[in-house]
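Q: My collaborator sent me two sequences in one message, no labels, and asked for predicted structures for both. Can we handle them in order? The first one she listed is below.
A: Yes, handling them in the order given. First sequence, followed by its structure tokens:
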Amino acid sequence: MKNVSFYTSFIKSLSTELGFSYCGIAKARRLDEDARRLENWLNKGMHGKMSYMEKYFDLRVDPTLLVPGAKSVITLLLNYYPQTTQHTDGPKIAKYAYGNDYHEVIREKLNNLLLRLQETVGEVNGRGFVDSAPVLERSWAQQSGAGWIGKNGNIISKQAGSFFFIATLIVDLELEYDDPYAKDFCGSCTRCIDSCPTEAILPGKVVDGSKCISYFTIELKDMLLPDNMQQRFDNWFFGCDVCQDVCPWNRFSKPNTEPAFTPLPEILNFSTREWQEMTEESFRAIFKHSPLKRSKYAGIRRNLKFVKGG
């Protein structure tokens, strides 16, 4: 039988081949400290109307309930920092949404990784997750040595900043485990806290999700946004990058090499007027593979009207 070291090396080598910029592995276990923190966050209502955050609490904090017999949690990072950013007077869009929907891109890579692992090792039970299931991916990223959790709630790498997606693969295979990332290099810096347009980032590494621009422009489905947030969105109408843009560690961000994340020309170049004149038919055709389809045409119109004070 091939040994644990071989399996571990195989997974990390394959992750690089698939385009991931980091692969770290942690021992599957219940995250007791994170469970207490999540419960407190939920009790304070910081999830707003994201009721799905209240569901499957035990699954979120214990990977062995997601994959019976789970022994390892594999964390993979995929860089999405773009070659170029928006150069238009149009409303601002978070960089992660410039290209194709990352859920589809990463899910294919995860399925490929698990299939190749099964072909090499034999019977391996596992499940891959991409920001769409009850997994505390940032905690597992820190546990696997990817980086530290910054004051803005993002995983930050000294070498690469924070513009990357986090994917998680839970398997019932014993592997070699990386050391948790023990240091915190945010220091006394408070740029993300000071710069947040809606004051959603609080001291103590707490982000009030119910105040975040990404929550209002993507998660919240109400057709009317709160009046007290009018004029505070700083022209962001799908997501927000302020806390990452001001982070000193993102000076180390390098453009991604994933073809699927090539920015759509419309996102880079559309003026406010072009967004306002866009029909639903055009929206569906242009953004059929884009994360923007998550807000649907009606949501995009709502956001546009709100940030422009209409």
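Q: And the one she listed second?
A: Here it is, processed independently of the first:
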Amino acid sequence: MTLDQLRIFVAVAEASNMTRAAALLHLSQPAVSAAVAALEGRHGSRLFDRIGRRLELTSAGRLFLPEAKAVLARAEQARQLLDDLSGLIRGEVRIAASQTVATYWLPRYLARFATARPGITLSMADGNTAQAASAVLAGDADLAVVEGRTDHPLLDVRTVGHDRLGLYAAIDHRLAGRPIGRAELLEAVWVMREPGSGTRDHFATVLPDHGLAIGDLDIRLELPSNGAVLAAVEGSAMIAPISDAAAAPRRKAGLIQRLDCALPERNFSLLLHRERHRSRAVSSFLDFLEG
């Protein structure tokens, strides 16, 4: 069993397709198929079932996937240690970020750091807060920056920035011009980000001030991105809590409006694994971000 075989297995498992995995790895499809076949043949275990055009992990494959990822994470830590011992600031920083952070806050820091440290490669994957935290815990990311809250005991959480949410609606919405209190919140029809989103979680912490919980609201639609939520608000009678930064372009264009409801500031949090080695490249980025 080689590290290359493990990388290929993980890529196929995540892509559910040999051809897509080959493209992501810059390998030929026969090479990817051969690597998977070698793993299965050497250990006498079928790792994938073919369901139509998709590949699905077998029970053996599902058990093997987290172990393969753990081995690859340890190999990456060993590579980073050797880079550190060389005394050179080089390497890679893998960042996971929740959507608002990834789109509106973090890119300017990435651009400035990339200019200052050309020997360090930065990569960023976006998702919601729960997905970003899971990436750090699994070793798929060196750090995460999120707008949601997390209290996992293996995560070190530090505040690195702030933003504010607003309640947004279409220009002609019937709640426009009215102070928004408990009755209006119950009266409204809502579109929300999905569970696990930092925006949704932060808004849920505000509702008890009005004697409400998220389950009390008339949520008709859940969508997986800020852009999708804003488009739904613009074209319907629904309202939504959204970052002021995310809403700003549509608000400036006169497509949506901010309702009269003050929401408290929220933190952007840096997430780090408490027990994993931090390379010189990662430490350099942390110094820059927190400096």
